[in-house]
Amino acid sequence: MARRTKTSNGLLRLPLFLLIWSIASLAMWIPAVHALVLNDHETSRAFFYTGVLGLFLIALVGLSLGHRVPRYGMPGQLLSLLATFVILPLFLALPVQEGLGNTTFLNAYFDMVSAITTTGADIYPDPDRLPPSMHLWRAMVAWLGGLLMWISASAVLAPLSLGGFEVTARGEPGGGSLVPSHMQEADPKRRLIEVARILTPVYAGLTLMLWVLLMITGDTPLVAIGHAMSVLSTSGISAVGGVENAASGIAGEMVMFLFMFFALSRLTFSHDTVTIGSAGLDKDPEFRTGLLIILAMPVLLFLRHWLAAFELGGPEDVQQALKSLWGALFTVMSFLSTTGFESAHWEATQEWSGLQTPGMILLGLSVIGGGVATTAGGVKLLRVYALYLNGMREMERLVHPSSVSGEGSGNKRIQRNGAFVAWVFFMLFALSLALISIALSAVGSDFEQALILTISTLSTTGPLIDIAGDAPIVLTTLEPAAKVILCFAMVLGRLETLAIIALLSPNLWRS
Questions:
Q1: Which pLDDT value is given to residue 225?
Q2: Which residues, including other chains, have CB under 8 Å from residue 16's CB and lie 6 or more apart?
Q3: What is the DSSP letter of 414?
Q4: Alpha helices, H only, 315-472
Q5: pLDDT of residue 433
Q6: Phi then psi dihedrals of residue 77, to 5 deg
Q7: How many Å apart are CA 509 and CA 511, to the nearest integer?
Q8: Helices 88-100 & 132-152, crossing angle to 10 degrees?
Q9: 68 φ, ψ (degrees, to nearest 5)
Q10: Phi-psi domain of 390 (left: phi exceeds 0; alpha: psi -120 through 50; beta: other)
């Protein structure tokens, strides 16, 4: 027991970034063993030796720290998250470049930034180019990145009133807020480890359950584990180029559809950040808003068949109608959760509705995004709901200027200035979108390409790059400067602009 306590204290003494780095180094041995079983010795050596190198470097840094215990605070944890998304991919890209042998380090770095931020922008469009163990590694990095966001939401972002919590918290963004009592007693590092101990089994258990269900529906183990990890992390990474190419068919899509609900609200898997209001899903504004969008958008696409003066014929048209309805339902859910999987029947939806520009709908859904403190990106449903409440209130004041607002029980989670803070974030998101689009245009992209690339990266919905435009955008043809800009956009979209601004605030570091 004493030895275990001593080891635990030693781990607590390490900076958060080194702990994450050590986990990534150990994780490399999984694809190394997988490649060894498949007799792909070159790929196996690339992962094994890189993992050993990482652990060796971590040991050197740990020994250099000695018995000195650095002081950790919330700014340090937030800075560690930034380093994880910016610096750690430099290490994660080493086995990718070494294992492939025919790619540049910048492309490998871009791929790892895309994976760890759960964006899923595929710089290698041909799945046959990558060996099976490389597909497993990309899905694992995205899965670990999603787990990191689950944990950091409770342990880092919630106490700082960032990541969407600023809409419900009583403190200023970046200045702290009311958090549950069990989160106030522990120091930041211990709180993070405690949250990880609670949420990791939930995250891993859901992934295991989805993996088994996908194998039952007909997918191979590699494809099933890749899609299971991608759905839980909302990365949209696939070893076969998308779920439309999977063997599980519509049964697999239905199973994945159910697990995508975990990206709509944090209350679907945890109540640890609820401080006020009801903790029930039936009264959760995010879940209800997400359900409204998921049901309303497919119905509108379905009804547009008659609005565009098409006629319903025999049984074949009835079957086509059902396929188009399911294709719309799955794809809308997938892009609202920023997963980015396209249903095998999405083409049937386009033909049924007669809509010529479905990419604009998917872009809008991705901008809205999923729930706060989930693996989904975008503006987030809670901010959209806060802006909706503010708009309804302003329309009431047009009719009754002297009226007093009567907040319902379902609105208790929104603080008094929640709509104002949500509007500030939305303006920062729009400003980031404009600046990154201009930067991409300056390095050679046209307007449509720049807009799609920017929204894809800021909302962490990489598959938009292949689906939103008239033709897929080939990332390998972009200038190196454009790839660097997109890497910056992916990190900005994952951590969000308010968190970056908070890191630059002297008040946060002073506290």
A1: 96
A2: 72, 76, 77, 80, 189, 192
A3: S
A4: 315-336, 346-353, 358-368, 381-399, 418-442, 447-458, 464-467
A5: 95
A6: -65, -40
A7: 5
A8: 170
A9: -75, 130
A10: alpha
Residues 6+ apart with CB under 8 A from 287: 264, 265, 267, 268, 281, 371
pLDDT in the model for residue 166: 82
Annotate 261-281 with b (16+ C-beta within 10 A) or e (fewer).
bbbbbbbbbbebbbbebeeee
- Positions in the chain short of pLDDT 50: 1-8, 178-185, 275, 277, 309, 312, 314, 408-410
How many angstroms separate the Cα of 419 from the Cα of each of 224, 317, 382?
A: 41, 45, 10
Residues 6+ apart with CB under 8 A from 394: none
Closest to 79 measured CA to CA, from 16, 3, 155, 6: 16
User: Rounded to whole angstroms, how far apart are CA atoms 456 and 463?
Assistant: 7
DSSP string, 434-453: HHHHHHHHHTT--HHHHHHH
In this structure, what token pair is assigned to residue 332?
Answer: 């809308």
Please compute, for residue 486, the number of CA atoms within 13 A of its CA located in the half-sphere on the CB side.
39
Are the CB atoms for 405 and 413 separated by under 8 Å?
A: no
What pLDDT shows up at residue 183?
46
Q: Round to whole Å and give the CA distance between 448 and 250.
A: 32
- Cβ neighbors of 436 (< 8 A, separation 6 or more) are 450, 454, 457, 458, 485, 488, 489
Please spell the DSSP secondary structure of 152-176, one letter per residue.
HIIIIITTTT-TTGGGT-SSPTTS-
From CA 350, how far away is CA 356, in angstroms rounded?
A: 8
Helices (H), 234-380: 249-259, 285-307, 315-336, 346-353, 358-368
* Domain architecture of the chain: domains with CATH: 15-268 (no CATH), 415-510 (1.10.287)
Q: Which residues contact 371 (CB under 8 A, 6 or more apart)?
A: 263, 264, 265, 266, 268, 286, 287, 290, 380, 381, 382
Rounded distance, CA 20 to CA 15, Å?
Answer: 9
Can you give the pLDDT at residue 320?
84
Helix axes 132-152, 29-37, angle to 10 degrees: 160
CA–CA distance, 483 with 98 (Å, rounded to integer): 20
DSSP 262: G
Enter the tokens of residue 200. Answer: 């990791």
Return the H-helix or E-strand segment holding 125: none
Dihedrals phi, psi of 342, to nearest 5 degrees: -100, 130
Please answer whether residues 134 and 119 qualify as being in contact, where contact means their C-beta atoms are separated by less than 8 angstroms: no
- State both tokens at 169: 């918290």
CB 470 within 8 A of CB 504: no
